[in-house]
Amino acid sequence: MDAHSSRSRARRLLLPLTAAVCAIALAGGCSGTSPAAPAPEASASGTAQGAVQRAPDDLENAYQAVINDVLPSVVQIDASEGLGSGIVYDDKGHIVTNAHVVGDEKTFKVSVATGEAVLDASLVSSYPEQDLAVVKLDEVPDGLRAAKFGDAEKVEVGQIVMAMGSPLGLSSSVTQGIVSALGRTVSESRAGGGTGATIANMVQTSAAINPGNSGGALVNLDSQVIGIPTLAATDPQMGDSAAPGIGFAIPVSMVKTVADQIIKGGKVTDSGRAALNITGRTVVDDDYRPAGVALVSVERGGAAADAVLRIGDTITKIGDTTVTTITSLSEALAGDKPGQKVTVTYTRDGDSRTAEVTLGEI
Fold it and tell me: Keywords, A to Z (predicted)?
């Protein structure tokens, strides 16, 4: 398959965000008026010059070592609706990827990123609420190498990372950047096959993430997977074109939590994610602006029902966070845990009320 045809089939899932414009003041100037730093003095043995040369060499060697370690564990997943990536999770042939990569399909063609034979795989289970899924190779080839997974608690802003996968169908591709931020709560679009999930604690990275990278590996310089690249930001002010250097990966802690449950029991039984146990819809005010979430159904015995919320109530706040849409409601709950108590502000028959709700679980 050539690059053009691969590109046309690669699944596109980009997150619309509003870009902020920042002015950056640099110390010194670009006109050459600031004094130049003195050049290092080389000793007779050339130590200073050697030190300058070795640092880039060491970093380059580290990159190459990580690529050699991890890339054989990164696969390309060919679903009939598009291409994505995945990570070999164990030596039994389980592969973890994004739910939006597998979509509604049950069988797939899988090839390792280093270009070996195409293998058949079947879906074990998909968990769209966290945009994760596990597929399993029908036959496990000799020498299949599982990736090493890191510790989410040790991920820090500024760490050098690499994204590995099959962007635009170009297998065995690697991009490099840093961890830009931690703890981001991000909501996916449903456009282009997205799940619409709201995901907490995402890792933001400057490593380029393009269509087809979804489900691949975000790795540190210890050759450990610290996340699964899932979303790349777009700028609505520029026609939804990609916002360079703003990508998001699902943290390794959630990846392992979901994958372990699917592999063990075939489904996720303990999501660890809070819920009101309701179905709602966004309502608008007299100016047609989003103004809250009206309850369409309330699960019997669920969190909202136990707090005596009922159909027709409109939620406007969770704690101090204003709720205007279904997405903002999901985002307000994303950082909370089942069993946690929150104050829900809602309107009923035109009156504003509050209720203390013990959160349930998705």
Answer: Hydrolase, Protease, Signal
For the question of residue 352 being annotated catalytic, the response is no
pTM of the model: 0.73
Residue 69 falls in the annotated catalytic set: no
Contact predicate 359/341, CB 8 Å: yes
Q: Residue 277 CA to chain centroid, in angstroms?
A: 24
Closest CA to 231 of 259, 254, 255, 199: 199
CATH classification of 1-10+53-270 is 2.40.10.120, yes or no? Answer: yes
Separation CA 151–CA 225 (nearest Å)? 9
Is 131 catalytic? The answer is: yes
Catalytic residue (choose from 85, 125, 126, 131):
131
Instruction: Provide the residue type at 138 as one letter.
Output: D
pLDDT digits (tens, 9 = 90+) for 14-52: 443 333 322 222 233 333 333 333 444 444 444 444 444
CA 172, 176, 178: angle at the middle one, nearest 5? Answer: 145
Among residues 73, 171, 187, 214, the one annotated as catalytic is: 214
Residue 210's nearest CA partner among 164, 161, 166, 167 is 167
For 274-361, which CATH class? Answer: mainly beta
Encoded tokens for 57: 């060499």
